[in-house]
From TrEMBL:
TM ranges: 12-34
Protein name, entry field: Sulfotransferase domain-containing protein
Keywords: Membrane, Transmembrane, Transmembrane helix
UniProt keyword Transmembrane helix, yes or no: yes
Organism: Mizuhopecten yessoensis
GO molecular function, one term: sulfotransferase activity
PANTHER family from the UniProt entry: WSCD FAMILY MEMBER CG9164
Domain Sulfotransferase: residue ranges: 140-248
Sequence similarity: Belongs to the WSCD family.
């Protein structure tokens, strides 16, 4: 045992015992953290302070992130991949202080401020989904549709597939995969929204571009739909931390340079069809998707 070491080795024995003790304590702490990481409620209770808004602001978080203690209406947060779903989740979390869920489990998002990944029950205020169809719609009682121009959304999703959440696809990816990717997925952009416009419950439509150019008004409309009232101080904090830290930065390839004439014709047809359906759904004579 450590305390039975000979006197001439007492200093070395003390150092050895101390190092062993520290190592054991750290291992136990790490084990406890890993276990709690798999439990979203425990994760928020113990590590919720790690959730931050944009790092270069004075106020990194508007409200302590938590799960609802009462069952909330199951709300679908629907979008085509690459349409800013993670961004609007950040805005919702900043405004409400409640975790948003997801039909998927993205470990990188779970680490970086979205502990509700994989949660679809009433403890989260909205659930991210890219799925359509009767079975998926039946899971929810209300829906938020986030719509982005397909030219931008398709490119953003291609970048995510080949460059991660914050990176860009390399030129070699564009050369090898871009054409087939567009032919396979462009129609899915239209199919998803066309399907969700048949949803029986309340639907709130958010146009991505409106969220960019007039965020204050869009946040007000979104909070009204969710049944959340913000004070002036809370609204100020949301606007200050609006951008979040999950957006691509740096130079990107112009959209006009990568879509062929045929791709452009095909995608514009989908845009026109959805714009007409949206206009009818929202009872407006003209809807612009840009």
């Amino acid at each position: 045992m450590c305390w039975r070491k000979r006197p001439r080795r007492s200093v070395l024995a003390i150092i050895t015992c101390a190092a062993t003790y520290i190592a054991v304590v750290n291992l136990l702490a790490f084990y406890s953290m890993v276990r709690s990481y798999n439990s979203p409620v425990s994760w928020i209770q113990r590590y919720g302070h790690m959730y931050m808004g944009q790092p270069d602001t004075d106020n990194w978080t508007c409200k302590g992130l938590r799960y609802s203690t009462i069952s909330l209406p199951s709300t679908a947060l629907v979008s085509f991949p690459g349409s800013g779903n993670t961004w609007i989740r950040h805005v919702i979390q900043q405004a409400t202080g409640m975790a948003t869920g997801s039909a998927y489990t993205d470990k990188s998002l779970k680490r970086d401020g979205f502990p509700g990944e994989g949660q679809t029950n009433g403890s989260v205020i909205a659930v991210k989904t890219h799925v359509w169809g009767q079975e998926e719609r039946a899971r929810y009682v209300r829906a938020i549709l986030l719509i982005r121009d397909p030219f931008e959304a398709l490119l953003s999703e291609f970048n995510r597939r080949h460059g991660g959440h914050k990176g860009y696809a390399a030129s070699v990816n564009l050369e090898k995969s871009w054409y087939d990717y567009i032919l396979e997925t462009a129609g899915e952009w239209y199919d998803l929204y066309h399907d969700w416009l048949t949803f029986d419950g309340p639907v709130h439509v958010v146009m991505y571009e409106n969220l960019r150019v007039n965020p204050s008004a869009e946040v007000d409309r979104l909070m009204k739909f969710l049944g959340v009232t913000l004070t002036h101080k809370e609204k100020f904090c949301v606007m200050k931390n609006y951008e979040g830290n999950y957006r691509r930065k740096g130079k990107r390839m112009p959209v006009t340079e990568i879509y062929t004439e045929y791709m452009t014709y095909m995608i514009n047809n989908y845009k026109r069809k959805l714009a007409q359906e949206l206009g009818h759904f929202l009872n407006k004579s003209e809807i612009r998707i840009s």
